Amino acid sequence: MNALSFLAIDLGTQSLRFSVIDSTGGRLWEWSAPVESFIKGDIFEQSSQQWAALLDEGLYKAGREGLRPDAIAVAAPLAGYVALSQDGQALTPAAMYPDKRSSSYLGQVEEIVAGHSGANPYGLRAYIPDPLPHYLRIRDQSPEVFARMRHLLDATGWINWYLTGCHTLNYYTALRLYDNAVRETLGVRDGVFGDLVGIGAIIGPLGADLCERYRLPPAPVVAATFDSKTAYIGSGIKDPGDALDLSGTVTSFGVLSTTPLSDSKRRVYSVPFSSGAFLARGSTASSGGTLEWARKELFSDSFEVIDEEISKTQARIDSPIFLPYLAGERTPLWNPYARGAMLGLSLDASSRGMMARAVYEGLAYSLLHIIRSLKDQQVEVNRAIVAGGLARNDVLCQIKANVLGLPLTRFQDNELTTIGLCVIAGLALGAWPDRAAAARACSTSDRIFTPEMSEHEIHCVNFRRYLEFASALEPTFIPQGREGV
């Protein structure tokens, strides 16, 4: 069988990436362009008009290169909701996952879900990137938009619509719509989020106008899901205890378990992953975004210089502790109004290098916080893969291994969302027999970061300080104007 090729379209918070990979794992072509975000207070938006312009540019360049992909698959960040009119006009900018304007509706969704037995079998917790709070906000706060709105598509669904004309809802986002009874109680219109499509289902061919305009074949567009879940599929994890630390703008951490979770404290949750396996999960609100903030605002230097300064330091029990809650925090705090802090400063242990180390360690402690929450639910991590943009940073990867006390394996290709899209597309066309075979074809190990256990012991002490600082500051994580409410 001749090698097949797959076009992966991956929208992130900072860029839109096109990649073509064949069924032997060869990367044939790639192109990317930056994406702009509007951030002000609780607002975090992108423009679907810019998405469309960049999609057109990427398709044009693919056609000009003479590429003939056998299938196309798309992933985008969680959320990114765009309200569309009956004729497809965008009525709102895309509300991205850090957008906090729907936070006041979380309690209402939680209450309704709790009142319907069996509506939430996986222990999901309502949070700001979820579809229902966004729907309720538009209904209550933008009645003119709501009157014209026919569909409210997440970013993945919007791109699939742009490519095929079909309004679709991916499997994992659909879990956060719970059941018909919940939606009826909340007054949600039928079909507003698009038609549910399973992962690997063919949505339809690339639109005829796009094929003609950009000299591309009518390749089938295969349904995937949002970016982090797509990356899990591309990672090849398959056994209980296999885990993935996917760190880009945010960190998503998941480990395979044979049973779903039932966390009474609602800190972590699980979702179906494959036959007989569940993905036990947690995620942070900001990791790469926090590093970029620290590079720009605190250190005004390149990451190469920062890494060199950190490498001259060592873990210390009296070192500064950094809480990386610059965009609120998800697991296990679930507080969009949590705030970051640098604590435990002193004249002798708070040099520039030590404070930079504290930022890196803070990201690792937030990851350990997720893992400890999972361990409380009898979910153990046996081995872990690191991927995403932050996996390119050797210093950060080594600090993570030291903090976790676990060896971390890095692949040569860190873009697991892209690999996951190709795996999904290839499996739909029969290029491989299963996910494991697909991952073996597309992923090669690059390096294993082995923990330095003497430093791990120090980090165990400092992690307790991290938890104590977070607990002490939690009462201050209150949105302005809601004190005492």
Description:
The chain is α+β, with helices and mostly antiparallel strands. It has two domains: 5-225, ATPase, nucleotide binding domain (Nucleotidyltransferase, domain 5, 2-Layer Sandwich); 236-485, 2-Layer Sandwich (Nucleotidyltransferase, domain 5). Helices cover 37% and strands 22% of the residues. It has 16 helices and 22 strands. A seven-stranded mixed beta sheet has the order 16-17-15-14-20-21-22. A six-stranded mixed beta sheet has the order 3-2-1-6-13-12, with helices on both faces. A five-stranded antiparallel beta sheet has the order 4-5-8-7-9. Strand 2 and strand 3 (27-34) form a beta hairpin. The radius of gyration is 22 Å and the shape is globular. 49% of the residues are buried.
Biggest sheet layout:
7 strands, mixed
Given this structure, which CATH class of the largest domain is correct? Alpha Beta
Stated plainly, the CATH topology of the largest domain is called Nucleotidyltransferase, domain 5
Uncertain segments: none
The coarse silhouette is: globular
Strand content: 15-25%
CATH evolutionary superfamily of the largest domain: ATPase, nucleotide binding domain
How many structural domains? 2
pLDDT averaged over residues = 94
**Tally of DSSP β-strands:** 22
Question: What structural class is derived from the secondary structure elements?
Answer: alpha+beta
Could you tell me the radius of gyration in angstroms? 22 Å
How far is it from the N-terminal to the C-terminal residue, by CA?
65 Å
Helix count? 16
Helix content: 25-40%
Largest beta sheet: strand ordering: 16-17-15-14-20-21-22
